[in-house]
Amino acid sequence: MKTIILNNGVEMPILGFGVYQVTPEETEQVVSNALEVGYRSLDTAQAYYNEEGVGKAITKSGISRKDIFLTTKVWVSNAGYEKAKASIDESLKKLQTSYIDLLLIHQPFGDYYGTYRAMEDAYKEGKVRAIGVSNFYPDRYIDLVEHNNIVPAINQLETNIFNGQIESEKIMQEYGTQLESWAPFAEGKNNFFNNEILTAIGEKYHKSVAQVTLRYFIQRQVVLIPKTVNKERMIENLSVFDFELSNEDMKQIAALNKEETAFFSHRDPELVKFILNYDKNNRS
Ligand SMILES: NC(=O)c1ccc[n+]([C@@H]2O[C@H](COP(=O)([O-])OP(=O)(O)OC[C@H]3O[C@@H](n4cnc5c(N)ncnc54)[C@H](OP(=O)(O)O)[C@@H]3O)[C@@H](O)[C@H]2O)c1
């Protein structure tokens, strides 16, 4: 597996597996399948309510812990130094592990400066190998970086063919933060899986729209964590290291980028309210 070296020297697989919207009941089996077909990087979050299933699958797999790269994220309801600190220990327990490879602030809301200090301390204590953020657009990202000691290793942003994050990535590169994509397939929105340009490019290489897209971002050096509950698709999404897109293909795909979200803006007041109430509305 091709890897990326983060700003603190930690090595991360460029392609992993995300478990957002995988139900707590199905998570253990889905993650077991993902590990079986070869994924070694897993992306979960406190707010996915499925850390336990991820932990069980890792333990049962018999794969050495050091061969798995595990990411989780602190949710807004755990923001602030003390709550975040306790929530990190809770995540470690649920994940059945003594350390997390990458810990992210999930959303730029609440007392996330307190959260970040708790994460910096967890990093110094060896509970976490790298820390970073998610959904931090340039304004909040720069402010956080300038007011803390550890530069985030990763910023996980919605990144797909419609929303390429070219400008955000440029700013993050100035500071040394790696871009990681969430929703590389835009969850199928905008008729993504039938996109004509991606289909035509795929035909040349006998590859699917999903594979062409993953390959495009790999060649752009963006870290990816596509999600699927389907084992055949898990294999399909992993089979992207045996072909290379030409410069012309890369340009054609880049031209699809409108820097427009397929989901929502983090600056939309309704979205902010939704996120702030998410845990209250979803806690089982
Ligand atoms: N930090 C954040 O705020 C944030 C937000 C969203 C997501 N994420 C992370 O990013 C990961 C990926 O994003 P995502 O799950 O939102 O969306 P995604 O990976 O863009 O899309 C997942 C969807 O695509 C389908 N799919 C997957 N592979 C396919 C293939 N080869 N052919 C056809 N359909 C395919 C899946 O269906 P099936 O499952 O039915 O196959 C699912 O409906 C998440 O799981 C999560 O770990 C983070």
From TrEMBL:
Domain of life: Bacteria
Catalytic residues of the enzyme: Y48
A Pfam short name: Aldo_ket_red
UniProt keyword terms in alphabetical order: NADP, Oxidoreductase
Site, Lowers pKa of active site Tyr: residue positions: K73
UniProt domain NADP-dependent oxidoreductase: residue ranges: 21-257
Residues reported to bind substrate: H106
Any one GO MF annotation of this record: oxidoreductase activity, acting on the CH-OH group of donors, NAD or NADP as acceptor
InterPro entries according to UniProt: AKR, Aldo/ket_reductase_CS, NAD(P)_OxRdtase_dom_sf, NADP_OxRdtase_dom
Family per similarity comment: Belongs to the aldo/keto reductase family.
The protein, known as: Aldo/keto reductase
Species of origin: Pustulibacterium marinum
